[in-house]
Structure formats: structure tokens, C-alpha cells
Amino acid sequence: MTVKNKIIYQIYPKSYLDTTGNGIGDIRGIISKLDYLADLGIDMIWLNPIYPSPQRDNGYDISDYVAIDPMFGTMDEFELMIAEGKKRGISFMLDMVLNHVSTEHVWFQKALAGDKYYQDFFFIQETPTDWVSKFGGSAWAPFGDTGKYYLHLFDVTQADLNWRNENVRQALFDVVNFWREKGVHGFRFDVINLIGKDAILKSNPENEGKAEYTDKPLTHEYLQMMNQASFGQDTDAITVGEMSSTTIDNCILYSQPNRHELSMTFNFHHLKVDYANGQKWTKSPFDFQALKTLFHTWGEQMSDGNGWNALFWNNHDQPRAINRFVDFKNFRIKGATMLAASIHLSRGTPYIYMGEEIGMVDPDFQSIADYVDIESKNAYQALLDKGYTAEAAFEIIQIKSRDNARTPMQWDTTENAGFSKGTPWLSVGNHKEINVEQDKDGEIFQFYKKLIALRKSDTLISQGNYKAAYQDSEHIYAFIREDEGRKLLVVNNFSNQVVDFNLMADFKHHQILVNNYTDYTENSLQPYQSIAFLCD
Ligand code: TEU
Q1: N or C: lower Cβ tally within 10 Å for the chain?
Q2: Is 522 a catalytic residue?
């Protein structure tokens, strides 16, 4: 399967590079950086939505699935980007937001105008359920002045589509095929495990408004239909499903090759180990043992052809991992490279989120006015409504907002980090200290290049099985990769302390990789040190 030795780089187009001066990243900006990305060694670029959208949820509220929003550029420029990427061995993955559509989409507008055919595209009911939106408040809103309500699991302007309706499914399969015909070989499916909803939605008193719609069995059938009707016809297709609040068992089913659903899945449990009581909008240190357990469970259960995992620390919805999981103020470079080694040498397909390759960190915004994300603004108000002081509420937004990852890419030390000659749509972070111009020859970028090259050069890394190691260690996350009798031991010190370490006899003196230290001293690991030992 092509997916196993590929590296995927995520670009948040709005924040990558603006070539027109409107303060918004654009397609020509991406084209201008393809050589930079080819040098890094990546194979595919995942673009967050660039379709026409009111931008209420930064493009995840789509008003036209088969066009390019003029603020990002033109369809000709899109086709040029595909062609320029192909010259460099880089293909593209587009974001398919098929669970919901903007209320400004013509389908919803026709439904509002009384067109029964399009009303059947949505969940419109006289009796709403007690479900809550993932962005706060009720998941239902009045459907015009009909006295009925429509479902929106996210923002009120994002109406859920009813996949039970075969006309909806066909219309969405046509969307995927439109982009396939443009030469797109990768697709990321947004919250795709929410599409299996019941035809008539009811409250379940026992569930107190919790998700009754996640990972429903029909989801698998719909994915198999979409696979067969679209990307499944391409031998080089790479697909990934974003699975909201899912389980490892479902992720195995979604990504088992013989089920012909998806190539792999994103799940997020490892990015919730710093949630207090499972709640995102809290302040809590991360639970390292929980993190290790999740990685070991996924690694071992997804071995032996049992499904395939996307490996990632960062994306556009998450504060940057370097701020959450390492002492970045004192060990930024070593912490960044340790995080990189901990997934790039593991079993799955690694994703690099823009800026991660130079160790970009969250911005140090000082006012709630600096944040623009709808989820963060709703959360701030909800915290105030719960009685938090403005200061306490702001402190939580500062560490958990999705805007932390969405600040403009830091290209150099010039104004606006070289991102735009205009006023950036979102303020820039600390580009004077961290930027591509000074860091692309630096330790983090060069270590990423080394990891990528290693994965491509050795099937032990791209295909080897996974086995947990040093499970009882307080600070070390370690695993063994095994393939055809060869073994690789990877050890990562997840702490800012020197920790004891006794190397397994099998691996004595076969070190192949170490991050940022000239060597390692017997029986101990330096702060945030990662080492890989080969036994063949
Ligand atoms: O995110 C899915 C999702 O569940 C989000 O709530 C996300 O996990 C959360 O914000 C993390 O705190 C996808 C997209 O990635 C996100 O950008 C969209 O806002 C959302 O779906 C709706 O399309």
C-alpha cells in the first residue's frame, strides 16, 4: 500500500503565504514554497478547505464544493499548483467536509425556500433532540419560520447533511470525483464518523445529550460506497478519516485494507491527555502515562495488517504540541526533535503541520480580541457564563485556542514574518526568534529531513510491527519495531531531567540515530533525548 512510506505535510492555506497583500495566504504562495517542501522530503500536502465559504468556521462552512474561493486564488492557479507539485513528486490531499454544509449553500437556500427535494438533504424536525453543539449551545436551530428545527452539530451556519438520502450521497460522491478529475489523489474526510446518523433523531434520556451519532454502523457502509464510487478506483489514492470521539476498534475497521473504506484514521485521544475530567476548556498538566498507554495500544493493536494510523502531534485545531508536552522555554530544540522522533519512527503515516519543522510555538496573545476562532470565542463566553473571571477565562483560551496553531507561517524576521505585505488576518507569533530563513539549516529542520529519509530508506520503519518497551518507566516512551528478524528500539525521554536508562542487551552499540546530542552516555538519557538502536 503506497500509504506506508509517505510523509504528509499540512498547510493551513489562510496562514501560509500571502502574495496579493490582502492578509490571507493564497495558492500562489503555496506554489512559491514547493521547493522548500521538496527539500524537506514530503510526498503529499493536505490543504485545509479553499472552497467558497462565508468563513464563519474558516472554510469548514462550505457554500460551493466545486470551486475555489477567490480570496485563495483561481481554479487555473489551483491546476498550476497541482502541476508544479507533480514536477517535484508532491501530490495534494483536499479536505472533504461532507458531514455538513454552509447554510449559504444553494442546497440549504433552496430547502429554506420550500423545495422538498432539498429539505430532504438535511435533518429538519418538529421536535429537536437534547443534543448540544460541539461549539456550544443547542445542536438545533429554527428552520426559517416553519416552526421546525434543523440539526447543526457544529456552528449554527453548518447544517448537517442527511447521508441516509441517496441523493445526498451521490451529490457528495460527485464532489470527490470532481477533484479526482483535477488530479487530486488524497482526501481528508472531516468528522466522517458522524455521517451514520439515524433517519429520525431522538433524545436518549440515559445519554444526557451526549453523542448518539458517532461511529454508527452505517458509517462503514457509506464509506465503502464512497470508496467504490470514487477514490477506490485510484491505486495511488491516500485517504484519511478524521474520527471525532472514536474508538481504536472502529479505527481498525475504518482502515483495514480488505474493508475498502479508508487508508487510515486520525483519532485524538492522545491530544486530550491534558484535559481535566475530559473537558477541553480546562488547565491541566498532561498525563504522560495515559499518553504512553494510548500509543502502545494503537501501535500493538494496529500491527499485523490490523488497520493503519495517522501519526501526528499538531493540526489546525490544536495548540502546538511543543507548548503542551515539553519544557519549550528551556528545551525547545531538543523537545521538538524528541516529539518528531517519537512519531516518525513509529508505525503509521506521519503528518507534519506547517511550522512544526522549525519548532514554531503558540503566540503569546495578550487580549481575547486577538483570537478570532468561533470555537474559542464561544468557549470564552461560556467560561464567563460559568462564573470564571475574565482573567481566568482568558488564561484557558490562551493555552487551548485553535488559533494557537493558525498564526501565519514564520518565513523570516521582516514585518509580518514575510507572510504578507498587508495586515495578516490573524496576528503573527514570535518570528524574530523562530523563522524558516534562519532555521531551515537548523537542528529541527535537519532532523526532520533525516527522519523522513530514514523512513524512506528502511521498510523496518515504514512497515515494521510495533511492540511496547520500557512500559514501567516514569519518563521514557519507548517501542520496538520489528520486521523480518530486524529490530529497531526507539527510546524517548519525555522529561527535562536526566533519567536512568539500561539498554537492552540485544541493542548494545548499534545506535543509528540520536537527536541533538553528540552521543549518549551509558545508562542515562539526557533531557528530551531520543535514541534509536538497530539490531539486525
Ligand atoms: O474538527 C472536528 C472537531 O471535532 C473539532 O471540534 C475539533 O476536534 C475541536 O475543535 C478540537 O478542539 C473538524 C475540523 O478539523 C474543524 O476545524 C472544524 O471546525 C470542524 O470539524 C467542523 O467542520
Answers
A1: C
A2: no
Question: How confident is the model over 307-364, as pLDDT tens digits?
Answer: 999 999 999 999 999 999 999 999 999 999 999 999 999 999 999 999 999 999 999 9
Residue spans per domain, the chain:
101-160, 165-308, 462-535
Q: With a 6 A CB cut-off, is 272 part of the ligand 1 pocket? A: no
- What spacing in Å lies between the alpha carbon of 190 and ligand 1's midpoint? 8
Please determine, looking at this structure, whether the domain spanning 462-535 carries the CATH number 2.40.170.20.
no
- Which residue lies with its CA nearest to atom 16 of ligand 1? 317
- pLDDT of 509 higher than 80: no
From 18, 26, 190, 403, the catalytic residue? 190
Residues 6 or more apart whose CB falls under 8 angstroms from that of 397 comprise: 281, 368, 371, 376, 379, 380, 383
**CA of 134 relative to ligand 1 center, distance in Å:** 8
Could you say which architecture CATH assigns to the domain 101-160?
Answer: Alpha-Beta Complex (3.90)
Distance from the alpha carbon of residue 317 to the mean position of ligand 1, in angstroms: 6
